[in-house]
Structure formats: C-alpha cells, structure tokens
Amino acid sequence: EADIYQTPRYLVIGTGKKITLECSQTMGHDKMYWYQQDPGMELHLIHYSYGVNSTEKGDLSSESTVSRIRTEHFPLTLESARPSHTSQYLCASSTSDGLVVEQYFGPGTRLTVT
Amino acid sequence: QQQVKQSPQSLIVQKGGISIINCAYENTAFDYFPWYQQFPGKGPALLIAIRPDVSEKKEGRFTISFNKSAKQFSLHIMDSQPGDSATYFCAASIRNNDMRFGAGTRLTVKP
Q1: I want to staple A92 with a disulfide (CB 3.0 to 4.6 A). Which of A20, A33, A107, B32 is the partner?
Q2: Domains in chain B and their CATH numbers?
Q3: What does the alpha-carbon distance between residue A37 and residue A76 come to, in Å, rounded to a whole number?
C-alpha cells in the first residue's frame, strides 16, 4: 500500500469559493503529480513537480495552481471554483531512479462544484 | 490529442476466461509501457510494465504482449476472476517522464 494521502476525499462546494486539495507522501519521492480523471476518459496531467520549488503545468489547461515548499507536500488550489471544475483529482508521486518507474497514486478527491 | 489509444472501453468476461485489453501509440520515443489497475474508490496501482526491448512479460496470470513495429501492446489476464473486476489503464512514458494514459477499460468478470 502506497503512503500517499489526499484530503478531503469528497468535497461539495459552491461556485466562486476558494479550495485547496491536499496531497502528502511519506516515501521521500522527488516527483509529484496532479491528474484530473473523468469517467471513461484518460487521466489528464494538470501539474507536476520534480522537486522543492519546482512546479510545471501539464497538458491539460487548468485554472488551478500548485506549490511545492516541502518534498512531502503538494497542494492544489482553485481560487474560484466553477461547475466545470467538477471532477476527480488524483495525486501521485514517483522516484527518479531505477528502471521500474512506478507512480504511486493517492485515493483521489472527488470535487463537485454547484 | 490522445497519445495512447485504448480499447475496448468496457469488457465482460466469464470467470475462468481470458481478458484482453489493447493499446496503441504513435510516439516512437516512448520507452516504458505500464498497466495500472484501479478499484472503485482507490487510486490506480501499477500492475505490470514492459520496456520495448522485450516482446512479452508475464507475472502470474497477467501478461503484456508488445509489438514494437505495430506500435501496439496488450494486457492478457488468464483465468479471469471476479476479483479482477476493475478499471485498467495502459500508459506510456519517455525516459521515466511525461506519463500518458489511455482512457481506461472497465472489466467485469462474471462468476
């Protein structure tokens, strides 16, 4: 079982609210990722980080922002939630080394914006 | 555009049967091809992976077949069990970065 945690697991919030989705891992991984997952669709990478103070946007355009101040923590923030942000958000982490590249995923946060 | 195309979208198999899920890719720079398994309410977890220098990898009942010339790879689940019912994602990456996922296949194994 991977040691990667996401909170909250479920969130229902009104339009215009600011929200932060938390993600933390205890494996000391340098790489962390945020994906957006909709039913029947591939996982879309929205943000990633290769280390402290390093963040990049992924393929899918997102109005969210991320920060990486500590190795183990990679929160995602939406300044003003909209119904189009309704989705499942998955956080993952991985190491840089080795031939086997495994991304360890958290259980996800299911966000509903009303 | 979708860089890894996965089919079928859903699959129903009888217990004991063989489940086959297919993926195709375009980017020949991909050098790592994992399969992830996701149960409801959980995040995806790595099931098995292959690199393009081999054509097949087997781990227990799970086998990846890889066809480099056709740019295709597939997951075979032998003796499928109801506990295998989950969503399966293929993926591809370049030099351990930039993982691209397929759209997923929802597998149901009927008892």
Answers
A1: A33
A2: 4-110 (2.60.40.10)
A3: 15
Among the partner residues B43, B51, B89, nearest to A107 by beta-carbon distance: B43
Number of folded domains that form chain A: 1
CA atoms within 13 A on the CB side of A13: 22
List the 83-102 stretch of A: residues with Cβ below 8 A of B.
Answer: 90, 92, 94, 96, 99-102
Q: Give the Cα separation of B17 and B79 in Å (integer).
A: 5
Bond preceding residue A8 cis, omega within 30 of 0: yes
Would you tell me how many other CB atoms lie within 10 Å of the CB of residue B24? Answer: 17
For residue range B6-51, list pLDDT tens digits in order.
999 999 999 999 999 999 999 999 999 999 999 988 899 999 999 9
